[in-house]
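--- STAGE predict ---
source: upstream dedup step, 1 unique chain passed
mode: sequence only
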Amino acid sequence: MNGPGIKRIIDLFEERGAARYESGAPDSVSQLEHALQCAVLAEAAGVDAHLITASLLHDLGHLMYADAHAFEARNDAHEHRAVSFLRDAFPDSVLDPIRLHVAAKRYLCATESDYYDGLSQASKLSLELQGGVYTPIQAASFIAQAGARDAVQLRRWDDQAKRKNAATPPLAYFIDGVRTCMRPGNA
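--- STAGE serialize ---
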């Protein structure tokens, strides 16, 4: 086994998934609820298992902090932390959308005039901490990258996956799909 293995991924969700997605909002969904909602939205869109898996795991970097809220008020680079953790276990088709989902918010703010207005206050704050809205040149460079279009779609699901009490299947429902995406020897 080279990567974290499915058990370690499940353990992270079980140990830290109850943390609030936006801690300053008492009615916020949990990290696990957010991940499950993202995966449900991806599945409903009919995308392949790799993008569903990326949707489920995109914020795993937040769960890697002992204090689930240690990342607030600064750019925690959680997307890079997740990719570093998952790199040996998954192919680029899973990793690229995770790696680029934060930058996709910067891209959408630059290319869609009403996108910024739809962001939560917490998301607007994190946007500034993450470098702010892309310039036109930065936006063009972003979208030209491998996985960028998938990251933009993931970002849209990320934005929608904050509904309190939304019905989702349990984490176990997605595990077989996650396993199919893993490199041999990691499941």
